[in-house]
Design goal:
The protein has helices at residues 46-56, 82-98, 107-112, 124-171, 175-192, 200-212, 216-235, 240-260, 264-284, and strands spanning 7-15, 18-27, 32-38, 60-70, 79-80, 117-118. It is an alpha+beta fold and 288 residues long. The protein has three domains: 7-73 and 124-146, Ribosomal Protein S5, domain 2 (2-Layer Sandwich), CATH 3.30.230; 79-118; 149-284, Butyryl-CoA Dehydrogenase, subunit A, domain 3, CATH 1.20.140. A hairpin with a 2-residue loop joins strand 1 (7-15) and strand 2. Helix 1 (46-56) packs parallel to helix 4 (124-171) and helix 4 (124-171) runs antiparallel to helix 7 (216-235). It starts with 6 loop residues before the first strand and ends with a helix.
């Protein structure tokens, strides 16, 4: 499957006392350019995250945002430390035995005692594991988004290739007649100038000129490049660089075809080919 370099994915996860959020976006780029923006608690994961991204993505300017937000005290359920309360009750009982007139501890006083109420928290190891799992999720979603976009781009490219093939098939049968008409016109002008087209020297020059304006080879190469382009598209994978090279070769042949043209229809076809190939080159820049 052909993959686009453009995509976006986001996901979040809730932890005791905190929430994780990850965003992953990518745009086209000649190489793989990674940018990571991490919360301070997650900076130790940067080497692992870079390896993870590089193992899944081949090209593109990729930005990963991964952050931790601490939830407010009221948003999380408070926990009572039962061991702390038991220790406090035992200590209070000892005091009451020694001082029978001492006032017993109230619930309010117990809850205010340091360590009795604890906000939910997550240890560093669990936080790292959940963060890596969240990145796996957004990577999977980004791959799916890039695949969907790649399918659309492949359809556009295939349509442009059909148009190129149609142009080649349309002008190819005209080439022999166009060359013959141009040769006859040139011979007529030579006669008007008092020259004999059958003179050996002129015949050699005309034969050389006919070779220079022969476009059969360019048309054949255009058809070959189109076939190879379709094969690479069908093979899928990271084919952007190869398709970009093929687009350059298509453009080269279209340029040569236009420069050799001796017929108005062939010139129009060469111009239309350049437009189609430029559209292909623009789309190929978005492929991985």
């Amino acid at each position: 499957m052909i993959l686009s370099m453009t995509g976006f994915a986001a996901a979040s996860a809730e932890l005791p006392g905190a929430s994780l959020a990850a965003e992953l976006r990518s745009v086209n780029h000649r190489y793989l350019d990674l940018s990571l923006k991490l919360s301070d608690e997650l900076r130790t994961l940067e080497p692992v995250l870079r390896d993870k991204l590089a193992g899944s993505l081949k090209r593109g300017k990729v930005e990963l945002r991964l952050g931790v937000a601490r939830t407010s005290p009221g948003a999380a359920r408070l926990a009572v430390d039962a061991d702390r309360v038991a220790s406090l009750a035992a200590a209070a009982a000892d005091v009451e035995r020694q001082l029978p007139r001492a006032s017993p501890l109230s619930v309010h006083e117990i809850l205010r005692w340091p360590g009795v109420l604890a906000e939910p928290s997550v240890d560093a190891e669990t936080l790292a594991a959940r963060a890596l799992a969240l990145v796996d999720t957004v990577l999977s979603e980004l791959a799916a988004a890039r695949a969907r976009e790649g399918t659309k781009l492949a359809a556009i490219l295939s349509a442009r290739l059909d148009d190129i093939s149609a142009q080649v098939e349309r002008v190819a049968p005209r080439i022999p007649a166009a060359h013959l008409a141009y040769t006859e016109k040139l011979n007529a002008r030579l006669r008007e100038a008092g020259l004999d087209p059958n003179e050996d020297r002129l015949k050699q020059e005309l034969a050389l000129f006919a070779t220079k304006v022969d476009v059969d080879e360019e048309l054949a190469r255009l058809a070959t490049h189109v076939t190879e382009f379709r094969r690479v598209l069908a093979a899928g994978g990271s084919a952007g660089k190869r398709l970009d090279f093929l687009a350059q070769e298509l453009h080269r042949e279209a340029n040569t075809l236009g420069s050799k043209s001796v017929d108005a229809e062939l010139s129009r076809a060469a111009l239309e080919l350049k437009v189609l190939i430029e559209q292909i080159r623009e789309q190929v820049q978005n492929l991985e």
